[in-house]
Amino acid sequence: MKEIKCTIIQDFLPLYVDDVVSEDTKELVEQHLQTCQACQKEYQQMTQTLYVPIENKATLFEKINKKWNRKKMILIGSSILTTLLLCLAVFSYVFYYEKMIPYSNDLFEIEEQEDQTLVATYFGKSHAGTHMTHPMKVEIDGEMKNISLIYYVETMANSPTSNFLQKDQRKDPERLELPDSKTVDEVYYGQFDLEKIIITKEQTWDELLQEMTLIWER
Ligand SMILES: [Zn+2]
User: Fold this and answer.
1) Near ion ligand 1, which residues have CB within 5 Å?
2) Tens of pLDDT along 30-76?
3) How far, in Å, from the CA of 9 to the mean position of ligand 1?
4) What distance in angstroms lies between residue 31's CA and the mean position of ligand 1's atoms?
5) Each residue of 102-127: pLDDT tens digit?
6) For position 64, what pLDDT does the model report?
7) Which residues sit opposite 111 in a β-bridge?
8) Distance 53 CA to ligand 1 centre (A)
9) If 196 and its partner were Cys, which of 19, 48, 118, 203 is the partner (CB 3.0–4.6 Å)?
10) Domain ranges of the chain
11) Which of 176, 131, 129 is nearest to 157 (CA)?
12) Which residues lie closer than 8 Å to 100 by C-beta, 6 or more apart?
């Protein structure tokens, strides 16, 4: 293969380095390089100069590195954020997401005191809060009645404060006086959204009271 001139080989070298030569040429060049030091030198120089110069290489590497770091930082940042949001969501779900405690007559009781005020008693373990209304005049079956609405809520954890209070101070069932209850005719238990009835009128009193449980009447 010595008959192939170095110049020809060297003409092929750039193509060879770029790997755009045919298999035959590739073989030819490789065979020649194994035996010709001059062309080998040429080849080595070529491969070196074809590489990104060292300083460029460094900046390129830095760039890639920076880019990657930024990507990584964004990734880490967003995963921290996601985690935080998730924690917050779980936290608020556990502590603040209120769910009505369904009515059961061994859990709740309305009692009339001697002075005619009404007292609600909750016999359950713990709860996060109570929603109740002042008496409202509502027409029920053609009769105007003064009604109060009430429901107890729990959260997954119930409120930390209510649990503290309960553990430290209350051993007895919790008693709550209904506001202005001396004039109340009926008490209903169940979830309510007065805005739907009074403001947006999405719901009528009839519809709401049908969903609620009459738990006390005078
Ligand atoms: Zn040669």
Assistant:
1) 6, 36, 38-39
2) 999 999 999 999 898 888 755 555 555 556 666 667 666 777 777 78
3) 7
4) 10
5) 999 899 999 999 999 999 999 887 77
6) 66
7) 119
8) 26
9) 203
10) 6-50, 54-96, 100-217
11) 129
12) 151, 152, 153, 190, 191
